[in-house]
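TICKET: design request
STATUS: open
ATTACHED STRUCTURE:
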């Protein structure tokens, strides 16, 4: 009896513990049921067992190892099944079926009128047996050193590309020769993951179905080498003027080295890069036993023949197409090869009617214009940076150097507004007066006004209206020439612009910017102090019409609005009757602007704008040795000097009359003045009515004389260059006269 009680107590305790565990959620048996025959059957388990029964609060939500293993095996089976299906479905194309390229079309701003196209390509197959061994050896050493041992794909390269793509880098693929060969077939579709999978499968299939020699031959006949050349045969012709069968070790190494970046790696474009790649290929060929060290050491970097531009670039539009290419490549979103082969639709900002007006305005110049006289014109929307029109030259095939985006010329008095803006930033009033007598010695520098006139004590409005050198040099001294320079940079003039310095006479425009830089600065004025980057491409669409690139039109405020309103008020007086920019005032609407005529003069500018449009025109002359020359008079200015208010202002007016015909007339915002509203001073001494440009009876002659005053400082003669333009490189100018103010061949300087 006692034993029975003991057993009963144990059972009770056990039941109690079980109940306690059940309450805690650690053990919970499935409810059982009794059948009609009296048998007890355990409760049915649910098909979905989450949260899992009988486990703790965290563990119950974790999948079982059976579930994990089953899911993994199912995923592998799915991948294998997909791979097999794709492997069966994808056919290996014949080499001649490989896509060359789809023409990329460039449109005017309406998106439907075609401006031109990028479709410069050519291909001619050649048997591998006809090629010297150095050709395949150089390509293998450079592009795929494991070519003879891999199965068509590079697992390490794929993993590396995957990591790069997932981390947000540019899309990458494998790097074997077979995969590059495949990419020619799937041109433009292998940037996504689906395309890369197709590429890898086809590479594997080709490697199984073709010999290494066949793959190598097909690769060499389809890969792009730049200059519109697909395949080694055409590449040999376009780079060296020979057949591929005649290529030597040095030439083969050059062609192999530029494959990753054919256009930018062209020796004619980037000789330093091309030479580094060439040396790399030779080193790899030595390491892989394809040539001896002695042969590599004896090799000399090969000379290439001149790069010939496509006929699509003929005429003034060639400069537009070239600028489109440069801008998109510089964006980092496209390579030049992709632009020529992907069948894109590029919509530019160029308005066809305005572009035709720009060309006509330059063509209106007198027929006796010297052959080495050049004009640049660029018209920009200051509200978003879009380029309305651009005249970079008469024919891109004749001169492949853009007068707007590449050439530079001394800015002359177009730099005076930067000093005025520096003064306004320092809360100086435009009613501030200075003595305008000429000549005038300032800090040991003798400065002359372009017309040698003295207008007495005048304010900054009057000094700007008549572009008075002596006043502006005094102003520059007061505000600090370093601040004038800083404002120029802040407005949009690149900091490394040739001749841009902190000297007292920098206000007279000794710096030599590009017209596109000056347009950016003056567009900042027109936009009330908001700056935009000038651009020629509005958007790019892929072959399916999807927008894959859009220009950035967001502006950045760089100057206070009312400060710019005051500046614009002053610059509007420049276009008033009798002022230096009076020609522009004939447009019949509010116009602000500034003329500019450098020392010599070697350049003449007019920069004028309305609230919706900024147009910059400059004229310069280039000698046979590539250096800047004094402008030769022609037309009505045959016997006298050319200045900013003459031909540049007339070109500006001819263009603007057409370009603004459908634009509303808008006023510039009225400034808020802290003092009295400024006005133009009446001269206190005798002075002629000024139209910046010299006339036959008054004004300086074209050539300076010893009696007109010394130049700012002695300068060396410009050094000859091989490239046309005022300088062979905008950032490496030739030395020349330090610049000067309106039409004055000698603005003043140290004796």
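STATUS: resolved
RESOLUTION: sequence designed for all positions
ATTACHED SEQUENCE:
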């Amino acid at each position: 009896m006692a034993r029975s009680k003991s057993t009963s107590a144990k059972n009770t305790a056990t039941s109690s513990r079980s109940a306690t565990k059940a309450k805690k959620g650690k053990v919970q048996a499935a409810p059982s049921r009794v059948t009609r025959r009296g048998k007890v059957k355990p409760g049915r388990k649910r098909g979905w067992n989450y949260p899992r029964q009988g486990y703790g609060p965290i563990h119950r939500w974790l999948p079982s190892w059976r579930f994990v293993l089953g899911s993994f095996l199912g995923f592998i089976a799915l991948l294998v099944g997909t791979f097999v299906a794709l492997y069966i479905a994808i056919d290996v194309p014949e080499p001649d079926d490989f896509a060359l390229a789809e023409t990329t079309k460039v449109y005017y701003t309406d998106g439907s009128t075609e401006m031109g196209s990028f479709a410069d390509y050519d291909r001619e197959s050649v048997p591998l047996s006809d090629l010297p061994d150095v050709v395949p050896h150089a390509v293998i050493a450079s592009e795929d050193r494991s070519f003879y041992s891999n199965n068509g794909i590079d697992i390490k390269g794929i993993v590396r590309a995957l990591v790069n793509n997932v981390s947000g880098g540019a899309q990458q693929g494998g790097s074997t020769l077979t995969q590059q060969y495949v990419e020619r077939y799937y041109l433009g579709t292998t940037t996504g993951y689906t395309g890369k999978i197709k590429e890898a499968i086809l590479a594997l299939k080709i490697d199984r179905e073709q010999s290494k020699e066949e793959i190598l031959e097909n690769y060499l006949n389809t890969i792009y080498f730049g200059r519109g050349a697909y395949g080694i045969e055409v590449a040999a012709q376009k780079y060296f003027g020979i057949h591929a069968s005649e290529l030597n070790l040095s030439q083969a190494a050059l062609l192999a080295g530029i494959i990753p970046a054919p256009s930018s790696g062209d020796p004619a474009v980037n000789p330093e890069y091309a030479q580094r790649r060439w040396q790399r290929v030779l080193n790899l060929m030595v390491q892989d036993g394809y040539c001896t060290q002695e042969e590599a050491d004896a090799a000399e970097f090969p000379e290439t023949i001149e790069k010939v531009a496509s006929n699509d670039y003929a005429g003034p539009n060639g400069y537009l197409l070239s600028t489109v290419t440069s801008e998109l490549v510089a964006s980092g979103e496209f390579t030049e090869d992709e632009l020529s082969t992907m069948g894109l639709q590029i919509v530019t900002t160029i308005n066809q009617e305005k572009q035709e007006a720009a060309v006509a305005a330059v063509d209106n110049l007198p027929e006796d214009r010297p052959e080495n006289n050049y004009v640049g014109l660029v018209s920009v929307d200051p509200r978003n940076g879009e380029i309305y029109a651009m005249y970079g030259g008469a024919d891109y095939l004749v001169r492949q150097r853009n007068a707007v985006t590449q050439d530079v010329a001394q800015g002359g008095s177009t730099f005076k507004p930067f000093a005025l803006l520096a003064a306004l930033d320092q809360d100086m009033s435009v009613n501030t007066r200075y003595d305008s007598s000429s000549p005038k010695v300032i800090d040991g520098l003798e400065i002359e006004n372009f017309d040698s006139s003295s207008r007495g004590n005048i304010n900054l409005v009057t000094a700007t209206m008549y572009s008075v050198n002596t006043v502006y040099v005094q102003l520059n001294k007061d505000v600090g020439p370093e601040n004038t320079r800083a404002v120029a940079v802040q407005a949009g003039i690149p900091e490394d612009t040739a001749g841009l310095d902190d000297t007292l006479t920098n206000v007279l425009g000794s710096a030599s910017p590009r017209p596109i830089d000056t347009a950016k600065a003056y567009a900042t004025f027109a936009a009330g102090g908001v700056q935009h980057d000038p651009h020629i491409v509005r958007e790019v669409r892929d072959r399916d019409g999807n927008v894959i690139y859009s220009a950035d039109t967001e502006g950045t405020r760089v100057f206070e609005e009312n400060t710019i309103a005051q500046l614009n008020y002053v610059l509007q007086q420049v276009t008033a009757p009798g002022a230096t920019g009076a020609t522009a005032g004939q447009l019949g609407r509010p116009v602000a602007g500034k003329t500019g005529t450098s020392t010599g003069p070697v350049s003449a500018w007019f920069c004028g704008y309305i609230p919706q449009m900024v147009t910059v025109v400059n004229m310069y002359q280039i000698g046979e040795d590539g250096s800047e020359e004094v402008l030769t008079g022609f037309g009505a200015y045959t016997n006298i000097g050319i200045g900013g208010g003459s031909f540049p202002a007339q070109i500006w007016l001819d263009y603007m009359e057409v370009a603004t015909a459908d634009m509303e007339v808008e006023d510039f915002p009225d400034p808020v003045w802290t003092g009295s509203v400024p006005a133009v001073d009446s001269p206190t001494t005798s002075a002629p009515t000024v139209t910046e440009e010299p006339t036959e009876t008054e004004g300086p002659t074209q050539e300076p004389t010893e009696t007109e005053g010394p130049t700012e400082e002695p300068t060396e003669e410009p050094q000859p260059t091989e490239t046309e333009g005022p300088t062979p490189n905008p950032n490496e100018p030739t030395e020349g006269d330090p610049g000067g103010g309106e039409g004055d061949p000698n603005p003043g300087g140290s004796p």
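CLOSING REMARK: The domain at 121-298 is CATH 1.10.3810.10 (Penicillin binding protein transpeptidase fold). The longest strand covers residues 613-622.
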